[in-house]
Design the sequence.
């Protein structure tokens, strides 16, 4: 049962990802990306990572994709002949082949000798809100706090780059 | 209800980072509440004061060695050494920036705040004992740098630099993160010591680890601009404001090397027989390509950008050797490199004048006669970059070549020496323009602020004293290595 579910979700995410990079319209790509995110959320849920699954749906498939769609709408993108237009298929195929070449040994190794993976540190609380929260505030307290600096720096940087120079001259 | 264990928190250990964060936020607030821009230089001086305090706190940790925050943060001589290099780079950059901000009429508040945030990220990278800490530090550093690269919005190259750096930087961060995720997947821990233990145990999936190591290496190679991951470097270095270019070529590079060193020498140490060849090739290709491309440049900023790629190659030689002389040689080289590169870029900024228009070799014609002291300073920096005695650059190269020979990589040493010879050609081309060309070009009047003079004198002192009496600095670098 779970294997069946896994294959459905895996094939779903891969085909959505393909749809995303192959479709010509930006909106189609964005919607396909929502599909990828939802399938990934399902995969996370199957791995007992319920919090991550919920966050994936809420944050990525929900909030971020709405933003992306808004931006696409505001930019009013049209297809234009860019520098790479003619060569695009070659670049796409080349990148896919290269990446798969890199990952092939990884996959083949798994097919040849499937490993059981590593044991969870605490199976009872793994992936729950409590488990993730405890980890964030104990083991990974410092990286968690650095994230606050990261967000502040990103905010300041975004304001600096986008604010209108004329208005800001005091 | 089970109680949550309290992690060991040592606020004192992250004192330097906290100081810089507080100062940066204070500057941001000051910008909000005092919009009048009378005391323009004050913010720079406050930022500089913060860096000095952070440096003093860092120095007080010298000789200590402990981990804290559940083993995600480490304080040892190695981190102290790299933190001092990063703080030195930031301090010099702030002194250089005071003049630049005035000339280009840019907003100081956010500029210095972002510069300090970048430094915070670098310090966390130098002290990261956990993949998560290293990655978060790297992201804090990179995000602030993307904004700083595009700070002079009126210049088109600056916008281009920022966008290019952002897209390629985001891409490389993702590659690095993927590599780290694979390492975590294989070893079951993000702690560097834990990864090393798991590798020693031998029960890990070797393919996962191999792909993980390669991907992390690619990520770091991008950050230190090693060939073939250097494509962004010339454009970004050319477009970014000059003080930031000097900073990027010294501080963030040192921080990336610090994290890379710790990762390869500690976590991946059991695999040394497998990864040394990768680094060997990377070092050889990087210095050769960097030097050959630098030969063809007419723009001084671009020439220095390619030369910084070549220097990354020399430092990678030290990493590839991975012995005591190699590591301490690379540390030493980074220290010398910080002084000479920031000073060289500072003078490029002075000559470039408003709008950064005068940056080709031609604009340096007769500089040595018109401004003898400035010309002499630039000449010393150029000699040091080329590795001519009695400057710091020579001693640095000497130690690194020695380490490589010690390790038995004779071919790599020969490639390195040949490269040093090639580099002399384009470095001296600049001095030829400064002293041996007759035609006069009109120059704008150059006035130096006290802060700029202090920065140049400090760099001059650093380059010469390290070159003439390297033993004290070398023993510091050695102690930094031994604490591993």
Sequence:
């Amino acid at each position: 049962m779970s294997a069946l579910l896994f294959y459905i979700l895996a094939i779903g995410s891969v085909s959505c990802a393909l749809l995303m990079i192959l479709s010509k319209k930006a909106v189609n790509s964005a919607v396909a990306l929502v599909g990828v995110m939802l399938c990934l959320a399902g995969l996370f849920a199957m791995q007992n990572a319920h919090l991550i699954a919920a966050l994936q749906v809420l944050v990525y498939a929900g909030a971020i994709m709405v933003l992306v769609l808004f931006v696409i709408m505001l930019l009013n993108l049209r297809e234009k002949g860019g520098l790479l237009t003619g060569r695009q298929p070659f670049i796409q195929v080349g990148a896919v082949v290269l990446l798969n070449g890199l990952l092939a040994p990884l996959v083949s190794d798994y097919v040849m000798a499937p490993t059981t993976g590593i044991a969870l540190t605490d199976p009872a609380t793994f992936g729950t809100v409590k488990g993730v929260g405890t980890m964030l505030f104990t083991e990974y307290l410092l990286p968690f706090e650095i994230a606050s600096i990261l967000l502040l720096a990103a905010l300041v940087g975004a304001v600096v780059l986008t604010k209108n120079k004329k208005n800001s001259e005091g | 209800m089970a109680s949550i264990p309290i992690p060991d928190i040592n606020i004192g250990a992250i004192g330097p980072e906290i100081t810089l964060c507080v100062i940066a936020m204070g500057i941001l607030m000051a910008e909000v509440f005092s919009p009048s821009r009378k005391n323009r230089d004050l913010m720079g001086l406050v930022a500089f004061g913060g860096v000095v305090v952070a440096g003093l706190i860092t120095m007080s940790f010298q000789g200590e060695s402990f981990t804290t925050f559940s083993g995600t943060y480490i304080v040892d001589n190695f981190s102290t050494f790299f933190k001092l290099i990063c703080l030195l780079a930031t301090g010099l950059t702030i002194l250089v920036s005071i003049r630049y901000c005035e000339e280009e009429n840019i907003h100081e508040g956010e500029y210095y705040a972002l510069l300090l945030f970048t430094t915070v990220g670098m310090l966390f990278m130098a002290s990261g004992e956990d993949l998560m800490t290293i990655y978060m530090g790297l992201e804090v550093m990179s995000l602030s740098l993307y904004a700083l690269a595009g700070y002079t919005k009126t210049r088109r190259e600056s916008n281009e630099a920022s966008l290019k750096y952002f897209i390629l930087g985001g891409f490389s961060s993702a590659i690095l993160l993927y590599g780290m995720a694979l390492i975590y997947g294989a070893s079951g821990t993000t702690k560097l010591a834990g990864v090393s233990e798991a590798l020693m145990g031998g029960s890990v999936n070797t393919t996962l680890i191999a792909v993980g190591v390669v991907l992390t290496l690619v990520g770091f190679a991008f950050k230190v601009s090693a060939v073939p991951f250097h494509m962004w470097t010339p454009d970004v270095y050319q477009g970014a404001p000059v003080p930031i270019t000097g900073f990027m070529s010294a501080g963030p590079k040192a921080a990336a090397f610090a994290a890379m060193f710790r990762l390869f020498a500690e976590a991946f140490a059991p695999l040394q027989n497998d990864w040394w060849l990768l680094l060997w090739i990377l070092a050889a290709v990087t210095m050769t390509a960097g030097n050959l491309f630098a030969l063809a440049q007419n723009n001084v900023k671009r020439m220095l950008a390619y030369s910084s790629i070549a220097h990354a190659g020399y430092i990678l030689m030290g990493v590839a050797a991975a012995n005591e002389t190699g590591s301490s040689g690379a540390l030493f080289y980074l220290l010398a490199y910080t002084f000479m590169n920031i000073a060289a870029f500072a003078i490029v900024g002075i000559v470039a004048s408003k709008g950064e228009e005068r940056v080709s070799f031609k604009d340096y014609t007769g500089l040595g006669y018109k401004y003898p002291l400035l010309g002499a300073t630039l000449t010393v920096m150029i000699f040091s970059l080329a590795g001519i005695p009695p400057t710091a650059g020579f001693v640095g190269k000497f130690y690194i070549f020695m380490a490589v020979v010690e390790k038995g990589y004779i071919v790599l040493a020969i490639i390195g020496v040949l490269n040093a010879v090639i580099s002399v050609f384009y470095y001296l081309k600049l001095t030829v323009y400064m002293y041996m060309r007759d035609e006069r070009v009109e120059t704008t009047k150059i006035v130096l602020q006290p802060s700029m003079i202090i920065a140049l004198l400090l760099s001059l002192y650093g380059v010469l004293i390290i070159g003439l009496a390297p033993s004290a600095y070398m023993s510091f670098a050695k102690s930094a290595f031994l604490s591993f």
In short: Chain A touches chain B through 33 residues (CB under 8 Å).
